Amino acid sequence: QLQFVESGGGLVQPGGSLRLSCAASGFTLSSYAVGWFRQAPGKEYEGVSCTSSSDGNPYYADSVKGRFTISRDNAKNTAYLQMNSLKPEDTGVYYCAAFRRGYFSGTYYCRRGGPRSDYRGQGTQVTVSS
């Protein structure tokens, strides 16, 4: 069964950290580009961070640069988004996505109007509040 299952969201105070995980089953994540997207209240769906299958030069939205890190563990077939120094404006539902044609730049997958993903996680709520 093909699945892409997210975990790791929750409530955290400003300045805190969370790590989101997305475990793939039924397909080999290492050959896919991976991206993390979020839907914040009243805002457009946006690409937060994306990386090609080779993980070279990942893309980060300006709002998260220096605070978020995208990574993957091929042995576990899992992708991660480490989120540090969280701010209230990081609140939203976060989705992981995988793209079969994984050889483009991270910017390509995260850009507005970018390609449709082949697999997407179910979404996990991140709330940053004191």
Topology of helices and strands:
Elements: E1 3-7, E2 10-12, E3 18-25, E4 33-39, E5 46-51, E6 59-60, E7 68-73, E8 78-83, E9 92-99, H1 106-110, E10 119-120, E11 124-128
Parallel strand pairs: 2-11
Antiparallel strand pairs: 1-3, 3-8, 4-5, 4-9, 5-6, 7-8, 9-10, 9-11
Would you give an account of this structure?
The protein is mainly beta and 130 residues long. The chain has one helix at residues 106-110, and strands spanning 3-7, 10-12, 18-25, 33-39, 46-51, 59-60, 68-73, 78-83, 92-99, 119-120, 124-128. Strands 2, 4, 5, 6, 9, 10 and 11 form a 7-stranded mixed sheet that branches. A 4-stranded antiparallel sheet has the order 1-3-8-7, with no helix packed on it. Strand 4 (33-39) and strand 5 (46-51) form a beta hairpin. The mean pLDDT is 95.
Main β-sheet description: 7 strands, mixed
Tell me roughly what share of residues is in helical segments.
under 10%
Q: End-to-end span in angstroms? A: 40 Å
- Gross morphology: globular
Radius of gyration: 13 Å
Unreliable residue stretches: none
β-strand amount: 35-45%
Summing up helix and strand content along with how strands pair, one would put the structural category as mainly beta
Count of individual helical segments: 1
Q: What is the tally of beta strands?
A: 11
Would you list the SSEs in sequence order as H and E? EEEEEEEEEHEE
Q: Please, what is the average pLDDT?
A: 95
